[in-house]
Amino acid sequence: MKISDYAVKNYQFTLVIFLMIIALGATTILNMPRSEDPELHAPQYPIVAVYPGTSPKDMEELVVEPLEKKISGLEGIKRIKTNISDGVAVLFVEYIY
């Protein structure tokens, strides 16, 4: 006998199994640990700037230097580390922790 035939002939059994699966899912969701605002332990955050078609020198003059000046004016900045390549600059801002 196939499983589908058995499920159709014994629909009460199928219904009970289905309800048990739904109850198990609801219980699992209600007991699952969750956090709306998880605590971040990393005091370093990356900032990615993309300017397609620019050389690293142009990227430094046009994008990175103004960004570094603005970011260094913020409170609690420990250091700023920058990696520049063709059309992409990544600034790692490290905060005092």
Short descriptors:
single chain; 97 residues; alpha+beta; Alpha-Beta Plaits; 2 domains; three-stranded antiparallel sheet; 3 helices; 25% strand
Order of helices and strands: HHEHEE
CATH class category of the largest domain: Alpha Beta
Please state how the strands of the largest beta sheet are arranged side by side.
1-3-2
Shape: elongated
Instruction: Report the mean per-residue pLDDT as an integer.
Output: 90
Please give the CATH architecture of the largest domain: 2-Layer Sandwich
Q: What distance separates the N and C termini? A: 67 Å
Number of strands: 3
CATH topology of the largest domain: Alpha-Beta Plaits
Oligomer: single chain
Strand content: 15-25%
- The portion of residues assigned to helices is 40-55%
Tally of domains: 2
**From the helix content, strand content and strand pairing, which structural class follows?**
alpha+beta
Uncertain stretches: none
Total of helices? 3
The CATH superfamily of the largest domain turns out to be Multidrug efflux transporter AcrB pore domain
* Biggest pleated-sheet summary: 3 strands, antiparallel
What is the rounded Rg? Answer: 28 Å
